## 1
Amino acid sequence: MRKLLSSLLICATGLALTPAPADVPLRGFFPQSVQAERDLEARFKTMPDPGRMREAMRRLSARPHHVGSPYDKDNAEWILGQFKSYGWDAHIENFDVLFPTPVERVVELVSPTTYKASLQETALPGDPTSNQQAEQLPSYNAYSIDGDVTGPLVFVNYGVPADYEVLEQHGVSVKGAIVIAKYGGSWRGIKPKVAAEHGAIGCLIYSDPRDDGYAGGDVFPAGPMRPAQGVQRGSVEDMPVYPGDPLTPGVGATKNAKRLSIAQARTITKIPVLPISYGDAQPLLTALGGPIAPAAWRGGLPITYRLGSGPAKVHLRVKSDWSLKTLYDVIAKLPGTTEADQWIVRGNHHDAWVNGAEDPISGLVAELEEARALGTLYQQGWHPKRTIIYAAWDGEEPGLLGSTEWAETHADELKAHAVAYLNSDGNGRGYLEIEGSHSLEKFVNGVALDVEDPESGASSWKRVQASRILNGTPESQREARDREDLRIGALGSGSDYSSFLDHLGIASLNLGYGGEDDGGIYHSIYDDFYWFTHFSDTSFVYGRALAQAAGISVLRLANADLLPFAFTNLGETVQGYVKDLQSLRDRRSEQIVERNRQIEEGLFKFTSDPRDPVTAPQRQLPAPQLNFAPLLNALDSLNHAAARYDRAYNRAVTEGRVTNAKSVNERLIQAERALTSTEGLKNRPWYVHMLYAPGFYTGYGVKTIPGVREAIEQGQWQDADREIARAAAALEREATLISGIVAALPGA
Amino acid sequence: MRKLLSSLLICATGLALTPAPADVPLRGFFPQSVQAERDLEARFKTMPDPGRMREAMRRLSARPHHVGSPYDKDNAEWILGQFKSYGWDAHIENFDVLFPTPVERVVELVSPTTYKASLQETALPGDPTSNQQAEQLPSYNAYSIDGDVTGPLVFVNYGVPADYEVLEQHGVSVKGAIVIAKYGGSWRGIKPKVAAEHGAIGCLIYSDPRDDGYAGGDVFPAGPMRPAQGVQRGSVEDMPVYPGDPLTPGVGATKNAKRLSIAQARTITKIPVLPISYGDAQPLLTALGGPIAPAAWRGGLPITYRLGSGPAKVHLRVKSDWSLKTLYDVIAKLPGTTEADQWIVRGNHHDAWVNGAEDPISGLVAELEEARALGTLYQQGWHPKRTIIYAAWDGEEPGLLGSTEWAETHADELKAHAVAYLNSDGNGRGYLEIEGSHSLEKFVNGVALDVEDPESGASSWKRVQASRILNGTPESQREARDREDLRIGALGSGSDYSSFLDHLGIASLNLGYGGEDDGGIYHSIYDDFYWFTHFSDTSFVYGRALAQAAGISVLRLANADLLPFAFTNLGETVQGYVKDLQSLRDRRSEQIVERNRQIEEGLFKFTSDPRDPVTAPQRQLPAPQLNFAPLLNALDSLNHAAARYDRAYNRAVTEGRVTNAKSVNERLIQAERALTSTEGLKNRPWYVHMLYAPGFYTGYGVKTIPGVREAIEQGQWQDADREIARAAAALEREATLISGIVAALPGA
């Protein structure tokens, strides 16, 4: 059946997944270089081996391997050995970071009835690693402050700012209360942060079965979903302020680094927080009184979800061991030849919350197979133009610690030498998901076209396109059909690209397959070899596809004659962002006007139900008009320069030579750097990129042109015009840099 | 608090709920008649008594009173006595109708495990009437065919046609299967009808706790929601074909009426069907295998919802007593004076599925208080111009039996004399919900402005407007602010107005308050006095408001100098329907083109997940263009005539006399009749109204301009142009009639 399907698809689309002929252009390569690159890639593609990935996963996920655990170090040493055996120049780089581990954890309902939460994930028969209790990190949220609090319980939905507006309308306050929030709807660290801002004294976070439990399928081990006792661990460090070691913002956490005191660290929570299972959450939620939760807030438990606060009173106690722990980053190098001081950096973390088969080992085993293949090619005589650096990061889970400390330590070298950073993390079945710098959008589309999707037999590109046409809005449907390149998402946070892109301005991409399998084992003891090999990419064919996609990206970047950046995609994307911002302002303005009018008309009073009275919201000041002219002017400059670069690039490729290619490439590397601003974002100077940042109130979720967008979203109108000017200045710098490159190319 | 709120509202809006002064116009009244009418209404408004409503509800809902039960007859006789005691000329009119009552009911899971459904609602402590088991009609769906079937179980969501497309995409067939559908999403009778069309052999319908169980609040008796054993009874007669007695379509079911055989009756289901509780549904749903149900299909049970068919096999047995039962319609009359042969008809049913406090007694007790008040006014010397007929219908629950048989029996008189029919059914707290003929839209808006909302102190009109501004789409928000009249909905089916409007072309209105209280006792033994007086309009102030709204409507219609129809609202509304139809065709056309293109592009194959393969849908023929010109021309005629009528009406009112008022009113009565067509709708000739009908595949839900709309929706393109011409002819008749009336008014 699948075979037939595949051949049908190839007929239907004319896609032949044999290598493209040498006369089809390849972004970044002169005509005379294409054939050699295609041949090299064809050899490379055959090398990643699903069987080896499976065995590597078995080995790496055999025991819990969180930061500071014996098996974390053991894995690092094994990975080091692997790189060396592949012919790479590899070493381990250590850092000493603040990483709290739990000492005391108590959650109990103290009235109207009593219930003591078990806070314990149980070993499951048939699952051979879930019984390694002695080595498992108990369920907790890293970087929760220590605390011992008792207070009424309030259900806050996902705990994002909009949820507190609903609570306020229903007259429910969280002042002095312990909130209970569902996982999801935002990055988890946002939940205690927003709760504390509203006066809460403690925070519980639970996994609702509607979101990743039985609603989506059978629970583990019968199926992939979260069982009643399963808990999502995770960091609640305030990463939107800065990631990495809380004690060494902006500098590497080396042995003798100058450290803040814990009290000085801005990224530790203000209130204690613990994650719990839905098994433990159900008695607490059942005890809640108060108004019935809106339909959209309700989860999958067989109860009436209420807001509180009612009779339910909860005691929460959290205490951690706040000692420093050692990180083991594995760094491996293949030296470049003619452009050795231009670096292609590729990474995936190796630490996990527990056994971490899916997160992160499923991505790491692909990276290791890439490394083995590249090492083999190297030994067979291929030497890359540029230096290739492969990293297996430690400490990603607590707060991107390993990558951040390494990037901060090597900031100056990286700013001078790094061409691009390629990241992966977990991997699964389905669709090639790509996010990253839009100057690489055209490049990575070319890669996706050349990697076969294992299930459909079509290209990974074609499958994503098909899905967007079938499932997209009319606009994204039209775009998927008509636009030359599939649009890639912007990067927020949540994995190790953050320091490279957000702090150093290095063009970055994040790659991974997914979208076909549901699961509910994220950050639990059940994310293990048994789960992955029963419910995810069981044959590791998508692991191979990831190794092919990332490996070909590395090969092309390392071998390219002219680095394959394209700025028309960047300009067009930023133009979309600016339009977004303009309509965001207008929409906010209309909302404020409409809301104020509704208040004046007394509508909230007319419709208040005496059995569930609603309070009218506060009047807000009308939104001022903003001066978008600087951004629009800068955009014109950027688009103009980008178009000129396209023409110059095409001329250069047609001619087949650029005398000063090395220096042109060195200037191309600086194109992403030009989008940064030394003073960084308001209140979080660690973040210097003017186009991309994780949202202050979303965490993982990206905010594009963040200075302007967050000023509008948060109603800080007085900042908006200044932020527009800062973003515009970055775009003008970019335009100037690109114009300079154009001048240096032939025919200028 | 409430007192303060009310006075605030009055300040904010300038609304004084004392009667409007005599110089404010009153639709239908000459200036010299306004003061008397206002005075009369002011006296009327003080009369409906919440205390009496409470006691009447206690009496009428004291025992089960379904069709054929002793207490149904007893209630009818008590109601008759009430009318007589109020001074009305009242009698009981009997009909003999086919009404099946259950003899055998079996639902059992026979594999892979076994479970026998209890099919039994249990008596609850504290609820004094739930223990009247001997008199309760067991839970069942009336007009299910007898049957004894065993087959695999398939979950079909709400069981509407679109759900079967999803099943087909997942490769799940219901051929030879027993389907289980959730209540909701359509009228219940649609579920077995569509299931049978797809080859199912049996149908179960259950109440999911997400829809009216614990998700929405505490379950009865602690709260208003449906407990685990609660079952929704209800008719599954194919009412979109014709309502009323299945054996006497189109004629009254009098003693000697010519009757069809049961086998000839088109409105009995094709497959056996039974309703069950979620307590009984859970073991069946848990046993299902097959693909996981889409997220939107999942309910509130703590299980993984799957589509089947899997190992679950079910045995269903239904057998009824198919004897005829006697209906007791109570008909009461206050004779008119100068225009006695113009009738104002008002009704609410008295039969229930069990005790029926909410459905229908909460509406009936308001109607009785209106009748008492009108009788008192009559005895005090007020005599209406027109004859007023109040009805308490029997047999509404099984299929609008009492009203249909009465309307069919008196069809000729009603067509000649009936000005309007005013209906109510259950009543609750909240917002005045109005549906009906758009020629009465302006009139009923005037009534809503003059009835105080008991909670806010504002008018019932104002409160609805406030809610639409707060909760509506931008378009309905704008309309609620700017349009002179609040838009009223069109009538589908689901209560006793159907025969008057759909079969006889009598302008109709349906009135009731609701929207603030959730409940889950509908058609169960728990819809009783205890429930209503604990969880709904406990002080009966909304019962009083309904009596005021309906009573004032009756008074104004009965006393008006010129009947208060207004046709500009009708024309504007129909214009909206025609625009809808045009964009519906275009949207369907685009969907077909897009879907065919997706099939050609192979998108379904590219995206099919081998673990949950999806089948591409079938290609469809493109939609032809339709000739809307006849409808648009007819609309021009109607709008033109309506505008001229408005001017003529205003002149007549300004002059304060119309010499031929009686004959003008007789012609106004015919305006709704003009919108009917003698041959009726395709395949259901009982329905003759060309603007309004219940949807063939929605049941209660209305289809406006149904001939055209259903031809487009069902892709029966060959019918569409003919249906457009038929609808256009009705509008032309209406325009001609109105033009004739204009000519008969002064100044023509």
## 2
Amino acid sequence: MNRVSIVCLGVRNMEASVRFYRDGLGFVTDVKENNPHMVFFNTYGTKLELYPLQELAEDINSVNPPSIGKGFSGITLAYNVDSKEKVNEVIELVRSAGGTVVKEPQEVFWGGFHAYFSDPDGYYWEVAYGPDFKYDEHGMLTF
Amino acid sequence: MNRVSIVCLGVRNMEASVRFYRDGLGFVTDVKENNPHMVFFNTYGTKLELYPLQELAEDINSVNPPSIGKGFSGITLAYNVDSKEKVNEVIELVRSAGGTVVKEPQEVFWGGFHAYFSDPDGYYWEVAYGPDFKYDEHGMLTF
């Protein structure tokens, strides 16, 4: 067992999230609708999925669904890039897509350059460049 | 922008989580220590990372770190397999690793077979088989 097949984000407003990820950030999907029931993005390797939050809780256990929390979930997603300029570019894209920049692009103690934003449901993404990051031909980290 | 480079789980007890993921479930890492500061697993495509929870909140914003929530975070991770038997096998592995099975393996309305477990910090994983799932040579979903 050594695999993350899908990261699924439970969303409160599908239309707002599709607008953010597909139309705003440019995540690739075959879905053309503006308010689908669910959507998968064709990220290489791992799929990113959006699914209605309450239904996701019920999919986990329909008899006793976990109660939905508030505050920082403890999970972050990372979008890693190969230059500092690209960190800035992604953050500008986030801003124009209506995301919240929670940490402006800046140098990090470990030698990299990063920023954080949150999506319409408050899920956190790190956008990071590191001088030692290596990528394969699909843009996935290989370290 | 169309990439999930890393899924990072903020953990409360690194040693317990390393025991669960590395020693229990068999996730692959170069880290030999039992209580490292952080650990990356070499999942194909997307890395799975464990990082101390409070430090993750401070990495997002050291001046005003998001307060850590309780309850279902709204994010699930999926481990997809190519047979019903493998769903059962993974769930048995989870049980022997000390994870909590929150939904026993069962048929799903969309034609698949799945189960859910939670890890030492309460993060949810779906283990799923679907008759239409296709995988590449690295075991990643290709639909």
## 3
Amino acid sequence: MEMLNGRELAKNIKKTITEKIKIITKTTNQNPALATVLIGENPASQIYIQSKIKACHEVGIKSYHYNLSTNATERDIINLINDLNNNSNINGILLQLPLPQHSLTNNCINTINPNKDVDGLHPLSYGRFSLLKSWEDILKSNLLVPCTPLGIMKLLQYYNIEVNKKLVLVIGRSNLVGKPIAMLMLAKNATVIMAHSKTVNLKQLTAIADIIIIAIGIPNFLSNKYSLKKGVVIIDVGINRTQHGICGDVDLDYVKTKNVAISPVPGGVGTMTITMLLENTLKAFINQNKLKFPQL
Amino acid sequence: MEMLNGRELAKNIKKTITEKIKIITKTTNQNPALATVLIGENPASQIYIQSKIKACHEVGIKSYHYNLSTNATERDIINLINDLNNNSNINGILLQLPLPQHSLTNNCINTINPNKDVDGLHPLSYGRFSLLKSWEDILKSNLLVPCTPLGIMKLLQYYNIEVNKKLVLVIGRSNLVGKPIAMLMLAKNATVIMAHSKTVNLKQLTAIADIIIIAIGIPNFLSNKYSLKKGVVIIDVGINRTQHGICGDVDLDYVKTKNVAISPVPGGVGTMTITMLLENTLKAFINQNKLKFPQL
């Protein structure tokens, strides 16, 4: 079993971002800046936000944190987002999900200026990269692509894993991971299967896939019930808190007996996600300031 | 072999649209209106535009036609679209594709106000319906969905063909058909395979699919080289002009020997496409005037 190490790549990319920001700050006298928005006091969300802020500071991105109370109304959140949209010192806006009131999620995300949408969750962001013809077009466009899917693409590239013409099985159809990674894989000429909780006969599909990306949030779901193709590459995006600690959607004890390459939990894609947030914030800064700057 | 007759359904829907527009005109003293924009003099495009204008008049939609010359610049086209965006008498804008200069397509489409994007080709339109959780949410939202994919969904519904939990193979990944129909099928709980010209081993996939939607523009592509599951439903979206007349992407002589249901060319989905354009124009009118009106 080969391990795809997200930490190593994340470290390399952070180094590059740090250097680019140094040059930018020197030449423009400005800093890329990210606004983080947290509604309520969910402890897990607080931890996530803290690591994002810490990562910003590591690479030289300024951060501004906004915390509204759990009972903030839709109007309160939208007013804050509009203020941040109009604030030219802010390049990226990150609204930490889940919101205490789930039903407000779409309206709040849709309020974020798509050019500051560093999480890539606005429908316009999704439409923009999904309708481009190729992965090269997506890279050239400097568009904001959701962080986890972007991290997966970079991880595969780093390990020279061919996507072109491969059969990719995506299990899970969330707006955060499943739907966008399917479109990115398609842009890179993969044949893509979108599977989910309503899929019948998943066993038939795992057996023929060259690459499996799983993001469903069920500990050890991909177990010996499912046969795997020899040499399959598995990207585990699940982050599940169990009494034995954090684990992914893949039963490592099972897959380690197979000839597979795997991005494990922890240490795989998760570490890439925050790094892609930094990259998106830098991208947003470059786009907003119309800087000519080498592709990220 | 069962035939899925698009003409019959299109006729029924047109009747409903006509009645709704009659009521609307009576109560609001206004007419839904569509602007058709043609660049250049491509004869096939002229014929398409003519049938769209004719269909508008049949159901009571006003139409305004704009024809710019082949050598119109990007600025010329964008200025025209902006005028139509700002014209409150126009509810829908249809830019006939292909443009004489292909490279202008994205910028021109992106200029159309998404609320008037009756072809559903704007990235925001694509993102909006793709990120909703279910087909019911899409219907309730009154969003503008691309006409051919919407027509396919209605045709399947009309013939009571179950999509939920089925394995759907989409062959072709165009922005017009392949990508949007994949997202609509996913919203209706299908497991979706997105295949295309770079797909290896398509034979393996045709053999397991419950529903095949093909839109690649190669006459008689789906032939006896490909095995089919018993009872498969095939939606042929190809419109190919050959020396023997118009034909689809499916070899009818082959599939008619199988136990399949097929939407043929001509007479299948094609007739639904224009009808969905009428429905979208009515939807755009209703949305723009904030009318409360029964779901279409």
